[in-house]
Structures are given as C-alpha cells and as structure tokens.
UniProtKB/TrEMBL annotation:
SUPFAM superfamilies noted in UniProt: WD40 repeat-like
Keyword Transmembrane: no
Subcellular location: Nucleus
Protein name according to UniProt: Groucho/TLE N-terminal Q-rich domain-containing protein
C-alpha cells in the first residue's frame, strides 16, 4: 500500500517536468551568483568610499593647518597691537600737555574700524596679492599664498604652515614629504616595522598616512589581500598616504606651539621659493644642484636638455598584462618581445608578439611569498628570482624548469644584479649583507658586510668594476668587485629604496623614501650632486636607459617619470591608477615595462619624436 502511494507520488513529480531538488539547487546557484555580483559591486563601492574618505581626511588636515596658522597669526597680531598701545601710552608723557588729549582721541579713533573700512582694506589686500602673483608667477605671491588651498602640499611639496612660519610668526610642523615625507617613509630608525617569520628582520618601508613607517609589504597593494602582520589589504604598505604631517610629532609641536623653523631647516623647494630663487620662466624649480659644501641652487638646464634626439618626448601604453597579483618585479627580454612579471608565488611569461592578454607560461616559485626581483641572463636563456624567502631560484626559460636553488640564509632577498657575463649573482638581503654567488658552481663565494640595516637595492657600474648598493641604514655604498671590499659610503637623510648606475658616465641615481631623487657624481674627489623633486611620495624603482642619456623612476604616487641624466630635466610624466612598484627598460631603450599594485604590468612604447 505504501509502495504504491509512494510510486504514485513519484510519478506525479516526474510528470511535472524535472527533479525539484535540482531545480532548487539551480535556483540557489543563481541566487549565489547574484549575491556574489552584488558583493563585488559593494566592495568596489567600499574601495571608492575609502578613497574619498582619505581624500577628505587630507583636505581636513590641510584646512586644519590653515586654520591653526591663521589663528596663531591673529593672536600674534593682537599681542602686537596690545604692546604697541602700551608703548604709545607710555610715550604720552613726552607729548606737550595741550596735545595729550587730542592724541588720546586720535588713538581711540584708530581703534574704531567700521565695516565699510574693513571691506575696503580686504579688497585692497586681494588686489595687491593678485598683482604680486601676476608679477612673480603662481608660486611667487607669498603674501597671498596662505589663503590658497591649492598651494598646500602641491606637487612641489610646499607646506604653507612652514612657509608662513619662516616668513615670520607661525609655529610650523616640519615639512614631511608625504606630499613630501611620506615621513621619510621607508624612513628613520625608530620606525614601526612589520616582520615576516623571523623577529628582528627588516623590510624596506613605504610611507604611511600617519607618517609612521611601515615596511614594504607588497601584500598591502592588494586591496582584497589577506590580513598580514595584523593589517589587511593595503593597510600595511599604504597605511596612509594622506596627510601632510598632521599626525606626526612635528604637527603636534605645531599645534602646541614651538619655535619657528630656521630657514635652513625647510625643505629645499620651500627654501628656494622663499629666497626668491625661481627659474627664469618664473616657475618654482624642481631640480637643484648641490655643491661640495651642501649649498643648493636651482639647476639651469642646457638648451638641448629635452630636445636631444636621444631623449624621450612621450610614452604610449601599448599593452596591459593582467598578472592577477600585485606586480613587484618585472624584466624584459633583449628583443622586447617577452616580459616577465613577478607577483605572489609565481613569475608569468608574456609573449607580446603573440597574445598580450594571456600569459604564455607560469613559473611557480617561492611558494606563497612575494617576488621582489627577477633578472634575465645576458643571453636570455635563464631567469633568476628572489623575494621574501631565504632561497633564490634559477629557471631555464625554455623548459620552464627550476635548475638551481641558492640559499642566502637571510629572511628575504630584496634585490638582484648579474654581472655582464651572467657568471656572478649579487643578492641584497634583509640582514644587510650582499651575497655573491658563482653561477657556474652554484656556490656562495663571498659575503659583503657593511649595511647595518637591510640592503634594498643594487646595480653595477658601467665598466663592471664597481658594485653600488643602497640600504635602509640611509647609506649608499660602493664595492670593488675584484677585491670584494668596500670603497666608500655616502650618507643620506632617509632610507634608499632604489638606485641605478649610468652605463656611460660616473653618476649614480638613488630614489629615497621621501619624494626625492639624488644623482651623485661618483668621480673620485667630486662632491657635486643633483636633487630632484617631482615625485609626491617614495621612489620605489629606478632604471637607467642603456644610452645613459635618461633614466626613469616610479613611485607610490602612481607616477612614471622620465628624467634627462644627470641633471634631472623632466622629459615625460605618465600616471597610473595605483602605486608603481617596479620598472625595466629594453636593451634598445624603446620599451618601458612597469609593475603596479593594480595587479597588472603596463608596457610603454618610448617615442623620441615630438609628433603625436
């Protein structure tokens, strides 16, 4: 009886045209996909709102600085007026008795300013400011600069609180180049650091919004990345890009009131501006020449600085390579047809001539750790990879197989360099050592001690006889490759994140954790150098063109800049939508490839003629 009843029910359901359980599952799948799409949309909206929030916070701090500055100026002027009144009253005794009463009446009348008089004074002041700006250019009207919100933390990194202070009265925060300081982001020794497995090991740092220093933890350039060192997404690396120093001790000093800054303590751009040292076209300079005594003067570029046929006039993005993870390292083959992008746990190989939208191959390496550097052998047959792991891996590109593993014994390898014959490998490690490997025997042959903090970048001189390394200990060091000993070291005010050696001249350019680039003359006995200021944040990568006529830099400010070597005339500026972490240049200087926090690499065609 029960079997028949059940069978009838089953037949009735079967006659309905399908299995209801499968239908229900299909509906659940559709609902799930719909919810996933909504979740993605909400995440995008959340990212957008967070970006707007950061922008509002920057504006708030900008206006807060202006408000504090104006308030302090008002207090100062009020105190001046009181003291002048007391002085005048004390001098009344020297006025003849018959004139004392009229003098008192005149003083009282001077204190009574009507509203129409205030309006007239305001209009006259504004007119004077406009005349000053017209005469000296937009950056020259210092009298009216305090009222211009756009002048606060602009591309030149000017902090109006500091300017007003040096002009006479405000108590400013020190200029921090986030809009220049990014705190000395990858910066001073007392910084906050996030650590990978081993306690005490250090990573290069990137500036933060609160102007505390965090290490370069590339996972933070992944908005959806997992929590790392107690921070999620971009927080650890981009734990802030916002303020012009409002949360730093300097800003607190500004709020509580300390002595005004001496002119010499202001950043070079502000100091030059206030001293009236503008370029002949009336614009604030961004390149300065420093002599042996440390004095800065705006660089006067030669007439052919940007017209030389070997200097790029523009760059054009021709390919986007969707790596899928934050691209921390890039390399390009000699023929500019293959690009290698390093992200989290793998290197992808792209064939630009075939299909730039899909990787040709994938090399699994370093497990789930981020890759910091990848270098091609001179003949293009092998690739060496290093990153946030103690091992350096060597791959055969054709077979896509790992052929060797080299142990640095350090927590991480931040940078790699190969000599011209690809026989020696130089690895900059998190413990400050520079390890040299013989690639024929695959053995460590030397270890160069010297850096007291992580060695973050490395390059070889054009003649191949000297090795240059930069570190988080604020030093640039040169080494004799044959004798394997340190030759010299140069101290900087902040950590060094990137460097490049000119292949044709004795110049080394370094990118700092502030917004500065310094180009140092390495000729024995020479002390001159250039200081460049057109980044708004830390300079994360730097490469010289093989011609030696120009070099490119990328930074946390999303910019790719191309400079004329060595004096830094800015030739090209391109903007991306996220931090640009790495770059490389093809051997014929015709292609630039960059890797960014937007989980992609961008390939640029370098254009040397001015025609569009």
């Amino acid at each position: 009886m029960y079997n028949n009843r059940h069978g009838g029910a089953g037949g009735s359901r079967g006659g309905g045209g399908g299995n209801p359980f499968l239908d229900a599952l299909e509906k659940l799948k559709e609902d799930y996909n719909h919810m996933q799409a909504q979740l993605s949309t909400q995440r995008a909206e959340l990212d957008k709102m967070n970006a707007e929030k950061e922008q509002l916070q920057r504006h708030y701090m900008m206006y807060y600085e202006m408000s504090c500055g104006l308030n302090m100026e008002m207090q100062k002027q009020s105190e001046v007026a009181k003291r002048m009144t007391a002085l005048l009253q004390s001098m009344l005794q020297y006025v003849p008795a018959e004139q004392q009463q009229s003098t008192l009446q005149a003083m009282e009348r001077a204190k009574q300013i009507s509203l129409p008089e205030l309006q007239q004074l305001s209009a006259a002041s504004q007119a004077q400011q406009m005349l000053g700006m017209a005469a000296a250019g937009p950056m020259g009207a210092m009298g009216g600069a305090l009222g211009m919100a756009g002048a606060l933390g602009g591309p030149g990194g000017l902090n109006m609180a500091a300017i007003a202070a040096a002009m006479g009265g405000m108590r400013p925060p020190q200029q921090t180049d986030d809009r220049p300081t990014q705190s000395s982001s990858r910066q001073s020794s007392s910084r906050q650091r996030s650590h990978s497995p081993a306690v005490g090991e250090k990573k290069p740092k990137i500036e933060t919004e609160d102007n505390d220093d965090d290490e370069i933890d590339v996972q933070n350039d992944d908005p959806a990345g997992p929590a790392v060192n107690g921070k999620t997404g971009r927080d650890s690396v981009l734990s802030g890009i916002s303020s012009s120093g409002a949360s730093t001790p300097a800003a607190k000093n500004f709020a509580t009131g300390q002595q005004r800054l001496p002119l010499a303590q202001l950043d070079p751009a502000t100091r030059m501006l206030m001293q009236g040292m503008l370029t002949p076209n009336g614009k604030a300079p961004y390149s300065y020449r420093m002599d042996g005594t440390g004095n800065l003067a705006p660089t006067i570029f030669p007439p052919d600085a940007l017209t030389d046929p070997g200097v790029p006039k523009s760059v054009k993005a021709i390919h986007d390579l969707p790596h899928g993870e934050v691209v921390c390292a890039v390399a390009i083959s000699k023929d500019a047809q293959r690009v290698f992008t390093g992200g989290k746990g793998c290197v992808k190989i792209w064939d630009l001539a075939a299909n730039a939208s899909q990787a040709r191959a994938r090399l699994e390496c370093l497990e789930d750790n981020y890759i910091r550097s990848c270098k091609l052998f001179a003949e293009g047959t092998h690739l060496v990879v290093g990153g946030e792991a103690s091992n350096i891996l060597l791959f055969d590109i054709e077979t896509q197989k790992e052929v060797a593993k080299l142990d640095t014994t350090a927590q991480a390898c931040y940078a790699l360099a190969l000599n011209q014959e690809s026989k020696l490998l130089y690895a900059c490690c998190a413990d400050g050592a520079v390890v040299i490997f013989d690639l024929a025997s695959m053995q460590e042959v030397a270890r160069l001690p010297g850096h007291t903090d992580g060695a973050s970048c490395v390059d070889l001189s054009g003649d191949g006889l000297h090795l240059w390394t930069g570190g988080l200990d604020h030093t640039l060091r040169s080494w004799d490759i044959r004798e394997r000993r340190e030759l010299s070291n140069i101290n900087f005010d902040s950590q060094i994140f990137s460097l490049g050696c000119s292949p044709t001249d004795n110049w080394v350019a370094v990118g700092l954790d502030t917004n500065q680039i310094e180009v140092v003359n390495t000729t024995p006995g020479a002390k001159d150098r250039y200081q460049l200021h057109r980044h708004d944040s830390c300079v994360l990568s730097l490469r010289f063109a093989h011609s030696g006529k120009w070099f490119c830099t990328t930074g946390k400010d999303n910019l790719l800049n191309v400079w004329r070597a060595p004096y830094g005339a800015l030739s090209v500026r391109a903007s991306e939508s996220s931090s640009v972490l790495s770059c490389d240049i093809s051997s014929d200087d015709s292609v630039i490839v960059t890797g960014s926090g937007e989980k992609k690499a961008t390939v640029y065609q370098v254009q040397y003629d001015a025609s569009p």
